[in-house]
Amino acid sequence: MRFKSPLLHGTLIQRYKRFLADIRLASGEVVTAHCINTGSMMGCKEPGSEVYISRSDNQNRKLLYTWELIRADNTWVGINTMHPNKLVPEAVTAGRIKELCGFDNIRREVKVSAHSRLDLCLEGSNGNCFVEIKNVTLAVRGAAAFPDAVSERGTKHLKELMRLKRQGHRAAIVFVIQRGDCDSFRPADEIDHEYGRWLRRAIKAGVEALPYCAKVTPKEILLTEKVAMNF
Fold first, then answer.
1. Does the pLDDT of residue 126 top 90, yes or no?
2. Which pLDDT does position 60 carry in this prediction?
């Protein structure tokens, strides 16, 4: 996924009210950018950090700027949680996620119950595979960890995947690690023990957990390789 236009370099002043970030551009101008990340962003919100933001062409937007990247632990980290939903279908189509090859069609935002949707449904002659996508930015001693805040919604998605698996479908959760300095993945039990418990139950029930790293640069974000699960 290439950024549509060159990103703007700056320095993070602060993230506040979850969805807002004040950023000082190289010119000295201070702008407020939209932060599309509802998590705690632990380790990825330190004031004074280098950041990159994008600027929208839509002059009717309340906030013209969107926070895209931060430099944390000497690596670029993608904090925009919308991008994994583009990265995974792109990687599936290109055959970069070998576990999800061989499907003919991709449907997005698929309703699977009265109160729940999953990100993708891959359709093929051998049946369907329902896929939920999670963005990972937290790193703990070289391991990517999810979630970075208690996630009841994430646990609900695991239960939906388990239900679909029991009905005879394939079910998978793809963890998109938007940083290149992690060689393994684990649930962040110290943050959300319940999520870790249900993730292990889901895997035992046949739900496929697929943690994939992304190469993150100010020009593009590209899903690259699967990393080991560390439980």
1. no
2. 85
Q: Is the peptide bond before 147 cis (omega within 30 degrees of 0)?
A: yes
- Strands 221-226 and 208-216 turn out to be antiparallel
Q: Is 207 left (phi over 0), alpha (psi -120 to 50) or beta?
A: beta
Q: Is the dihedral of CA 144, 195, 83, 166 positive or negative?
A: positive
22-27 CB contacts, 8 Å cutoff, 24+ apart: 23/51, 23/53, 23/65, 23/67
Name the token pair of 94.
Answer: 């290109």
Q: Are 42 and 54 in contact (CB under 8 A)?
A: no
From CA 88, how far away is CA 118, in angstroms rounded?
Answer: 13
Q: What is the arithmetic mean of pLDDT over 134-139?
A: 98
pTM: 0.96
CA distances, 118 to each of 44, 131, 158 (Å): 26, 7, 10
What's the rounded Cα separation, in Å, for the pair 160 and 18?
27
